[in-house]
Amino acid sequence: TGLRDITPPCFESWIDANDDGEYQRSKGDSFLDCGCDRVCPEDADYSAPDEGEGDGEFQAVWLAGFQTGRPAASINDPIWARSTVLEKGDLRIGIVALDLVGWFNDDVVMTREMAAEAGLELDYILVSSTHQHEGPDTVGMWGERVGKTGYQEDYASFIPQATVDSLQDAI
Fold it and tell me: Which residues pair with 155 in a beta bridge?
């Protein structure tokens, strides 16, 4: 089998003042402007500022499902692209499961094209998502508020390559 970590690499944490799991500045919630690594200057393991630190912008990863306004605060468990390749005779099929709420057909088509360009020689690639609700919004329905997407192109853009890499590992 093949395995690649697809956990978002960059996001900032936040303080849930009323412990309701929903980011609401009007109710006292605030974000920690500590950058991608979520390590603040007052933390013991702080070494230097990193990307996004101190810029006044909340670099959130909006979680998919349930309702809007659910930014990730930390990483409990990594999320994965898991692949297996089945062969019988001259038929080779790749099967991929992504720990995402969903994944668009255009992205699956792009993954198939990238796999072909990489010379993986797969007759077919089946891509599914686990439809879990504790990962990033890869569909665009769960941002900070209704009408504001949580989909992040910079995050989603590395998923097809990670998927191809997991297929290569499986082969």
Answer: none
* CA end-to-end distance (rounded Å), the chain: 8
Strand order in the sheet with 91-98: 2-5, 80-88, 91-98, 124-129
> Angle at the Cα of 13 (from 3 to 129), degrees rounded to 5?
30
Distance of alpha carbon 134 from alpha carbon 16, whole angstroms: 17
CA distance 82 to 170: 9
Q: Hey, which residues does 62 pair with through a beta bridge?
A: 71
Encode pLDDT of 75-93 as tens digits.
999 999 999 999 999 999 9
- Note if the pTM is more than 0.70: yes
At 66, list the tokens.
């349930």
Q: From CA 88, how far away is CA 95, in angstroms rounded? A: 14
Residue located via tokens 């309701």: 20
